[in-house]
TrEMBL record:
PANTHER family: NICOTINATE-NUCLEOTIDE PYROPHOSPHORYLASE [CARBOXYLATING]. InterPro entries: Aldolase_TIM, NadC, NadC/ModD, Nicotinate_pribotase-like_C, Quinolinate_PRibosylTase_N_sf, Quinolinate_PRibosylTrfase_C, Quinolinate_PRibosylTrfase_N. Pfam families: QRPTase_C, QRPTase_N. Pathway: Cofactor biosynthesis; NAD(+) biosynthesis; nicotinate D-ribonucleotide from quinolinate: step 1/1. Coiled coil: none annotated. The lineage of its organism: Bacteria, Pseudomonadati, Campylobacterota, Epsilonproteobacteria, Campylobacterales. Residues 24-100 form the Quinolinate phosphoribosyl transferase N-terminal domain. This is nicotinate-nucleotide diphosphorylase (carboxylating). Keywords: Glycosyltransferase, Pyridine nucleotide biosynthesis, Transferase. The gene is nadC.
Length: 272
């Protein structure tokens, strides 16, 4: 239902009071296709499938979500009423391009650490009202979603910690008031803070903007004293640094860049 509401709003933004071309054109059955004008990883199939049900379109996918494609490949054939397809052309392309661009960059980060066993996570640095869509694109690229919002994991960031006088006492209260299944993650900028977070009962400790040398020390302390605690590294994660970070022994690396630094790939729609 949320997906349908999103799609209707997307079309309404572009359609306005009605496609002017539809006023003077005659309906006819046509077949269009999306062609890649650059290499990439596909995302958007799940949303375009929903579009097809809403607007009576017939789809023939040549690639699926998560599939890699090359410049010149035809990714999707769309059959239906000409007025419908031409009115939806930009909406369809914008969704596939936006999602596939995120999936493509995500896949490059995943490839860089594929032999380490470390997971790549996204963040909440998403465009307003596009979080579900953009995090879906991350999954298509092989990444794993971090929390979707403030309600599914309690993360204590540096700003939160500034308001907490006694972390141990606070954590005892937390365990009485948040759901039993919810995890607690604590952001730490030093080895000493990481030790305090583990001793206080964190489920996940984030090594935030730590040097790789200090992260290695956090991993060693965790392995010796609290092997059940998960470690996440974050901050200054790029394609050049991610492998070095993964080699420290953390369980996961989070990056907002895989969403907000994704450059749009080039796709186009043509009518046969």
């Amino acid at each position: 239902m949320l997906k349908e509401k999103f799609l209707k709003a997307l079309v309404a933004e572009d359609l306005g009071r009605g496609d002017l071309f539809s006023r003077i054109s005659t309906s006819k059955p046509i077949r269009a296709y999306i062609i890649a004008k650059s290499d990439g990883v596909l995302a958007g199939q799940e949303y375009i499938d929903a579009f097809a049900k809403m607007y009576d379109l017939t789809l023939e996918w040549k690639k699926n979500d998560g599939s890699r494609f090359s410049k010149g490949e035809k990714l999707l054939f769309i059959s239906g009423d000409s007025k419908t397809i031409l009115s939806l052309e930009r909406s369809i392309l914008d969704m596939v391009i936006h999602a596939s661009s995120i999936a493509t960059l995500t896949a490059s980060y995943v490839d860089a650490i594929k032999d380490t066993g470390v997971k790549l996570l996204d963040t909440r640095k998403t465009r307003p009202l596009l979080r579900e869509f953009e995090k879906y694109a991350v999954r298509c690229g092989g990444g794993i979603n971090h929390r979707m919002g403030l309600d599914d994991c309690l993360m204590l960031k540096d700003t939160h910690l500034q308001t907490i006088e006694d972390l141990d006492a606070f954590m005892k209260e937390v365990r009485q008031k948040i759901p039993f299944t919810s995890k607690v993650e604590i952001e730490c900028e030093s080895l000493e803070m990481a030790k305090k977070a583990m001793q206080a009962g964190a489920d996940i400790v984030m090594c935030d903007n730590m040097s790789t040398e200090e992260t290695v020390k956090v991993v060693a302390y965790r392995n010796e004293h609290y092997p059940h605690i998960l470690l996440e590294a974050s901050g200054n994660v790029t394609l050049d640094t991610i492998k070095k970070i993964a080699d420290t022994g953390v369980d996961a690396i989070s990056s907002g860049a895989i969403i907000h630094q994704a450059n749009w790939i080039d796709l186009s729609m043509k009518v046969e």
